Amino acid sequence: MNTETIKERLKKLLTQNIGLKIVSIIAATLLWFIMVSITDPVIPETYKNVPVRIINSDVVTSEGKTMEVVNNTDNITTVTIKAPRSVIQELGSSSDAIVAVADLRNLSLDEKRVPIDLSVSKYTDKVESIKASHESLEVSIETRRTTQLPIKATTSGEIEPGYVVGNVTQAQNQVRVSGPQSVIYSIYSAAVDVQVTGFKEKISTLSDVVLYDIDGNVIDDKNLELNVDSVRVDVEILATKKVPVAFSYSGTPAEGYSTTGVLESDIEEVTIAGNANTIDRISSISVPASQLNVTGLTSSLHALIDIGDYLPSGIRFADPAFSGFANVTVFIEEYKEQSVSVYLRNIEVTGIPDGFSSTEWAESKDYVEFVLVGLAQDLEQIQLSQLNFTVDFNDYALMNDISGFKAGIYELPLLLDLPDDVWMKEPVEVKVRLVK
């Protein structure tokens, strides 16, 4: 038989009674579905992340202990059940269809494991098998401890320029913490923190209590119980200003001594903080002169002054680390003497009486000598050319109640312009002859 004949026969076989063939296929398919529905075969179904419900926990807590699930065993990764297809369809695909229970009354003798009982929410009697990725709850049982800690209030963030954080106060300063012994022993401190970035006025807020270990790491354990979870914290935000500190002194040193007029302090200005309206009215901090009394002293006065005692009410130092103490010195020196001589020609005669044409010097020398007294620093500054030496007949007449002069020799006091803190040790008189 040749190839062409074979092809013709196959074509005829496939195309002959085509309608009947299609009906046969449909009928076979329907029959298969009917058979499957009647037999309802057992099939597997897998459920993921099934939570474990823990019951009768008072078995542990009644003995003063705590329990912690370890290795995340209170969540079953996969549970596979085998049941008829119809049951599987009824149960659905949600993990809620699986009931996983760990009863602490079945805790193992070593107190490390609790068996997990698995069931389905319905059609329990029709389920052929249930298998889980793990079959026991792993636990850590510890003695329950309680500790009480002080709560430290802190601030974080960058305060606005020109402002500082003032007092930070909290409504409660203690927290009581209960939980597993190992965790309780690791707690080192408790704190509440307030974010101050961008604020220019008082902050009042609720802040969560955070526990820390000795290295500053946060302790966040769900098995810990705190008697207070958050605390109200008030944070002062104060305006700042830099102002000078003014010192002065009082009293008079011992005879023969004087203050130099120089007062030195290692603190010349301070930065203060307070309410903005109050700060604006303060231009300086003044320390009373009574705090630096030099009465009877023969050497410089050194004093430690607490500037904080003289801050206005409601004002404080901006830097909490600043002690507020200033080292102040009032310098005192002994008076010195300096001998001076001036030529008579440099002395001006004034107030020559009427009727007298001129005067003549009646001294045996062409100069006069005298002694100046004062502090060394003042004596060093004296220039003879600027002292304006004079003798004045008008002044002499007033002092001696003279109404008229006669020709002759008169002893007139030498007058000169001296600085306030320099004087002549003894008065000097110069002999002057009046000539008609």
Short synopsis of the structure:
The protein contains 8 helices and 29 strands.
Topology of this protein?
Blueprint: H1 3-15, H2 18-39, E1 42-55, H3 58-61, E2 65-69, E3 75-84, H4 85-91, E4 98-103, E5 113-120, E6 129-132, E7 136-156, E8 163-170, E9 174-180, H5 181-186, E10 189-195, E11 203-208, E12 210-212, E13 218-219, E14 225-226, E15 230-246, E16 257-265, E17 269-274, H6 276-280, E18 285-286, E19 301-306, E20 316-317, E21 325-334, E22 336-343, E23 348-350, E24 358-361, E25 367-374, H7 376-379, E26 390-392, H8 393-400, E27 408-413, E28 423-424, E29 429-435
Parallel strand pairs: 1-4, 7-10, 15-18, 23-26
Antiparallel strand pairs: 1-3, 2-7, 3-6, 4-5, 5-7, 7-9, 8-15, 9-14, 10-12, 11-15, 12-13, 15-17, 16-21, 17-20, 19-21, 22-25, 24-29, 25-28, 27-29
Q: How would you describe what is shown here?
A:
With 436 residues, this protein is α+β, with helices and mostly antiparallel strands. The chain has five domains: 3-39; 42-134, RNA Polymerase Alpha Subunit, Chain A, domain 2; 146-236, YbbR-like domain (RNA Polymerase Alpha Subunit, Chain A, domain 2, Beta Complex); 247-334; 336-435, RNA Polymerase Alpha Subunit, Chain A, domain 2 (Beta Complex), CATH 2.170.120.30. The protein is built from eight helices and 29 strands.
Tell me the Rg in angstroms. Answer: 54 Å
Q: What structural category do the secondary elements indicate?
A: alpha+beta
Q: How would the global form be characterised?
A: rod-shaped
Q: What's the CATH class label of the largest domain?
A: Mainly Beta
The fraction of residues assigned to DSSP E strands is 35-45%
Which stretches of 5+ consecutive residues score pLDDT under 50?
none
CATH fold description of the largest domain: RNA Polymerase Alpha Subunit, Chain A, domain 2
**Largest pleated sheet:** 12 strands, mixed
Quaternary structure of the protein? single chain
Distance between the termini: 186 Å
- Give me the count of strands: 29
Q: What is the CATH architecture assignment of the largest domain?
A: Beta Complex
Number of helices: 8
Measured as a percent range, the helix fraction is 10-25%
Summed over residues and divided by their number, the pLDDT gives a mean of: 89
Q: Structurally, how many domains make up the residues?
A: 5
